[in-house]
Each structure stands twice: as structure tokens, then as C-alpha cells.
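User: Predict DNA helicase RecQ's structure from this.
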Amino acid sequence: MELESLLKQYFGYTSFRPGQHEVIQTLLDGRDCLAIMPTGAGKSICFQLPALMMPGVTLVISPLISLMKDQVDSLVNQEIPATYINSQCTFEEAKARFAAIRAGRVKLVYISPERLENEFFTSFMQSLPISMFIIDEAHCVSQWGHDFRPSYCAIKDWIAALPERPVVGAFTATATEKVKEDMMNLLGLEKERIFIGGFDRPNLYFRVVRMNRKLDFALSYVQQHREDSGIIYAATRKEVDRVYEELTRRGIRAGRYHAGLNDDMRRTMQDAFTYDRLQVIVATNAFGMGIDKSNVRYVIHYQMPKNIESYYQEAGRAGRDGAPGECILLFSRQDIMIQKFLIEQSVHDPQQQAVEFRLLNAMVRYCEGNHCLRHYILTYFGEHPSWQHCEKCGNCDQETVEEDMTEQVRSICLCVDELKGRFGMTMVCDILKGSQNAKVRRYGFEHNSAFGMLGDFTLSEVRDMVRQCIDDGYLDQSDGKYPVVSLTADGRQALSGHQRIVQQKVVSAEPVPELPKRQQKRRAGAIDEDALRPLFDTLRAVRLELAKDEHIPPFVIFSDATLWDMAALKPDSLEAMSDIKGVGSFKLHKYGRQFVSAIQSYIDNH
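Assistant:
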């Protein structure tokens, strides 16, 4: 019962989310743990709550300075004694923080992994009782991961050198089997319990839009969602600058973030976005793990990322507060060439390059297939959903019709069989379309039986059919920089002509930026956003003024999800306000009256 009362007192929740209680109890029992929990599942509470209950101090490894600042600001706002030590601290600030730590006035200390290489810091911490050592974004230890950080590899030896070994907890949002093995082996976990939470984010709506007019789409979408906070990810600095300039030219409060900007400019842009002074920020993946902003309502990927891990982590920055978010990926074939070029430029080890291309091919399959997007992601991360269609993603929402595709599938299988598994999808499509290009003629493929068999279709339609054959198991596509297509046993059976093949075909429609109409209401509940929007905006204005007074990000006071609940339930007293999710006892007494008053004033005037 003590855990639940502390959860309500400090964090404002009356019950734990799935998986939280088990992780917390494991750490309190003095056992190491590895917790893989999706963004938005509340993994921070899993170590923050035990830190309050344990004697001594908890050391938290956090990969980015901006991330630790946001986390500490949020904890301090909830009257949880926390601090951080990093390169941005002045000498006087660092001195005061070390004194507070030594005096036992701090429960959580956030540092970067590089801080472990500092002799003074190491000597200082070895003189203190460290009850718990937490590694956030633990996937950074693995070279097979997407954010490898060499300094994470020093953690194991640093812990081993302590006079008394603390409980060790490793946390991350996404990890494949190989990365999971590295985390267990390289971080020095002992007799650990492993918790793998469901990767599903039911409040997020995933969509892939295949198109070339990306700028038109992005501009239209942002203009239609002026009330929402969003991120647009692009693959290159040049593309970031182009989108940013177009947005600002149209009067959108936009910012940009990439490695070509100096440190001060990047920090200014991130702060402006965090504090809601910007509506949208356009960024490369340099705008990474430091994003702790909970009220991001949409993430648009202007170009395809290099792997599913990166995509899901970046897309997962939408809807961290549990309220609905939309994740849109704008895809064109040129994206594949861009990512291949970036891999070749940044990765020189042949073995690692092969890994990167394998991950890229899985990302391409996500973009090109007509499968359920949510099912594809969950399967990729090792889950086995009992359903094939979620009915809550762009592909599942598409209008489809059943169509007899027997002859088209046979033609595709014949073409692949003739090529003997030596060529990729582009050559297969060119032959089926009947293209007379130089490469087709060089190999004499214009004389193949399958040449021109699908000549009545566009090249894009042919590609969709071939991709569907891969998804349906008639063809197999290899990994590597140049994936080749080969015939499977099912494909050979289809080629024999003894079966009728029926496939679901998408009814083509021009993609539009708007959400499907049934998605306009909050997917996380039965709340009608249109009806509640005026009161929500009133409460958001109150939150913004309080945040300005305290020089903290607005979402640190209350999340958007909490404001929507206030707007729906309209609490008329502090007692009623205490029932709102996300309103803990400290925040209730600190801010409750202002919000109750704002709600009452709104009701009186309407």
C-alpha cells in the first residue's frame, strides 16, 4: 500500500501502469533488472519511486544534458530531491550540488556516462552510500544498436570498483534480441530479472504516405494543426533548412535543429520548442534522446529513417502523455538511396555495414507493404500479436477490395524464376513492365518469357504487386546492400497454376493531411476534443503563465492528458481535482486552486 500512496503523493496516479509494479518491487528487493519498456510506459517512475524509498543516493546515467535537465526540473517541481552534474554547471553550482549530495539532501543524481571518467567524481562517489545505479537508454552500450555510445562500455568496471555494489537497473525503450544480449553482458548485471513490456503504443496512429510532393503535404498538415506541437524529421541538414524556411515564410512558429548549427543555436531552438514558444521543430536525428516533451501531438518523418529502431523511438516522441498522437512517414523511393549513401559515408567496417543494410531493408519493407503497420512493428521487436489487423493504422484504414491476382502473381513468379535469384526488385519490375533500358538489354532480358507481361500497369503498380508477393510469402528478399529476390516453395506452387490467388487491393486515393474522420476524437477515450477544445485552451493558457513565472516547461506542471481530463470532468474543488490523473498532492496544493478557479470562471462565462 505504501507504494501506491507514494505514487499518488508524488506523481498523481492511483494505480501503476502494466509492468511498473513488478520492476519497482524487483529493485526494492535488491535485485538487478533489465527493463525494456516502450516510450510512454512510465519507465522513469520505475526507478524514481524506489530511489525515494531506499537509503543513500541513486545515480542515474542519462545520455544527454538537455534530457537530464528536463527530468530534474520535473522531479524538483514534484518536491523530489534531485540534481544533475554536467559540463554546463558553473564551478559554484557544482560545488553547491556536491555539498548537498554529501549532506544527504539529494536522492537522485543525474550524470552523463562520460562523467564516470572524471577522477574527482569517481573518488567522491566511492565515499558515499550508493543504493542504486540506473542506466537509462541502456541500448547505447551495444554496437548493434542505433545509438552506440562507447562511454557506456565503461559502466561495468566503474560499478565493480565501488566499495559496495549497488542494485543495478538498466532501462531502454526498444531493443532487438542482439542488443538485449549486449545490455546483459556489457553492463555488468548480476542475476538480473528481465522485463519486456509490450511495445504497442495504442494512443499512436501510424501512417505511411507514399508520395513525392512531400513539402506540400507537410506545410498543409502543420497549418491544419496550428494548435498542436509537432516534430518533423528529415534525413539531411539541407532538407531541414528547406522545410524550416518554407514553414517560417508562411508564418508558422517553426524552429530547426541539426549538427550544422552551433551549440548555442541548438540549445536556443530546443528550449523554445520545450517551452512551447515554437509550434513545430524541423530536425535531423541529432534532435535525439533529449526530447522529454510530453505534449508532442504529431511526428512527421519527411524521409524514411535508416532502421525500425530509430523510427519507433523518434515516432514515439508523440503522445508521451498518453493522449493521442499521429506518426506519419512520407516515403519515396529516393529515400532508400539517401540512406544507403549515408550508411556508406558513416560506416566503414564491412560487417557493421552489412548489419546497417539489413536493418535498412526491414525499414523499406515497413514502408512499401500493405500490411498492418502496428503488427509489423510489434513482430519486428519479437512480439506475436494474436491479430493481423489493428484497424488503427493508415494501412488498416485504407479502403480495399478483393481481386483475383492469379495471373499477375504467376507472371511475377515466372520472372523471378527466370532470373534464378540473381537480381533485385528493380530489375524484376523493369522486365515485367517491359522496360527497354540499358541494363535490361545488356543482359538480354527482353527475350525472357516474362518480359512485358505486366506492361499494362504503371511501374509503381508493378512494384506494389511484387512487394505484396514478398509479404504473402511467394517471394523472398535477401538482406544486404543489394537485396535479391528469389522464389519460395509457395511461389513455385503458385507458378504451377493449381491455385486461385485472391489479394486485398487498395482502392487508390490521393493522400490528404487530415486524420480519418473517426480519428478526430481522442483515441485514448471517449472525449470529444472539438467540444472540449475551448476549455482545454483556457487551461493551457493558465499552465503557460505559471510555467513562465517559474521558468520551467509547461508540460512539467501538467501534461496535456491531465488538462484534457480536467476539461472533461470539470473539478469544482481541490478534493475533486485530486481525482484527476497526474495531479499529485504537491501539485494539487501548488497549482490546484488556479485551475479550479479557471474552470469555474469558464463555466460561469459560458
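The longest strand covers residues 204-210.
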